[in-house]
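Researcher: We plan to redesign the surface later, but first we want a full-length starting point. Tokens attached.
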């Protein structure tokens, strides 16, 4: 094959060379929440990749097992912690939710809907047919695709071309636009209609293998790319900083830092602070205090633990408060208009998390 032919085969059929991957963190390298295994439904194994299950019978963790020579150095690894038999009440997915603003280029829901191609690298000890689902936010339009693990414990690249959907609601805003669901087991809302859009919620193919039939099973995934056109191109590797910035639209965590502020009155149990985020988030997030997060005042030998942030928006927060009594509550000194601080210990065990995931 000539070099010109090779180059042509690696170019997208539509759109630009850069920014063509609609998936964020498809190479599984960003893990702001930490690298310890997670075992509960709704948990994120890495940024933007969520475990959906009706039972805590799995372990999901970031891994260094990757396909050789492809430029990847991280994957996600999923394994059962107990066996399950498929039933209407058993299911497991690892899911990626794509924001509506990032779907505008697809023109889905119109007569000009564009075809897309999904490619990914997968490895499993369990051979057979697996399901890949696509659905809109209200699950009124969904589609199941199948791929086959042909050889156990071997990295395989899969490519699936999906015809653009002309029907249904696909909002172009900051809400959920599209769900990509990699199914590993289950029976709930299964379908035998493969490779076509349907007007109902489908979670898996009726041919889906039961990955949860042995606690010795292992599943790995990396290099997920969704792009406009009918041709798969090489994975778009971004710089670490660019990928992190994209992830921080949905989740940010802060450790080992101090915010300075001022208290209006000693008995208000609140300080005003300029809590600007590193970048604007998708929406106003929820805040979680983890580990050593304290409120203090210089030259006053007491400290409190915050329990709420005020004025929380997509751009930051304006105040923090602490309890009026209790072990970590009470008054800091006797004067208002005094300087206060909110300090965080070393991460990841001490931090404040801001979550605006879809």
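Model: Full-length starting sequence:
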């Amino acid at each position: 094959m000539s070099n010109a032919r090779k180059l042509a085969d690696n170019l997208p059929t539509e759109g630009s060379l850069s920014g063509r991957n609609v998936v964020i963190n498809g190479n599984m390298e960003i893990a702001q929440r930490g690298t310890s295994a997670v075992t509960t439904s709704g948990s994120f194994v890495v940024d933007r990749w969520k475990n959906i299950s009706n039972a805590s019978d799995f372990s999901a963790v970031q891994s260094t097992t990757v396909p050789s020579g492809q430029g990847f150095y991280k994957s996600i690894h999923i394994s059962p912690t107990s066996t399950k038999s498929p039933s209407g009440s058993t299911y497991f997915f690892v899911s990626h939710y794509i924001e509506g603003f990032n779907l505008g280029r697809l023109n889905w829901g119109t007569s000009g809907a564009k075809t897309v191609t999904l490619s990914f690298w997968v490895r499993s000890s369990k051979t057979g047919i697996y399901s890949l689902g696509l659905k809109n936010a209200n699950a009124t339009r969904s589609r199941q695709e199948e791929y086959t693990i042909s050889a156990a414990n071997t990295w395989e690249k899969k490519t699936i071309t999906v015809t653009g959907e002309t029907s249904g609601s696909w909002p172009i805003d900051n809400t959920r636009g599209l769900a990509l669901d990699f199914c590993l087991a289950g029976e709930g809302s299964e379908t035998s209609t493969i490779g076509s859009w349907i007007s109902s919620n489908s979670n898996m193919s009726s041919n889906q293998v039961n990955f949860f039939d042995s606690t010795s099973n292992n599943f790995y995934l990396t290099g997920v790319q969704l792009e406009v056109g009918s041709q798969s191109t090489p994975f778009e590797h971004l710089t670490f900083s660019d990928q992190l910035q994209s992830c921080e639209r949905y989740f940010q965590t802060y450790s080992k830092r101090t915010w300075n502020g001022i208290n209006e009155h000693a008995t208000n149990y609140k300080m005003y602070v300029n809590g600007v985020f590193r970048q604007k988030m998708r929406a106003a997030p929820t805040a979680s205090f983890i580990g050593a997060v304290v409120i203090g005042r210089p030259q006053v030998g007491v400290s409190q633990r915050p329990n709420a942030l005020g004025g929380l928006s997509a751009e930051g927060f304006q105040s923090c408060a602490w309890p009026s009594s209790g072990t970590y509550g009470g008054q800091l000194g006797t004067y208002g208009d005094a300087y206060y601080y909110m300090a965080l210990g070393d991460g990841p065990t001490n931090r404040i998390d801001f979550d605006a995931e879809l």
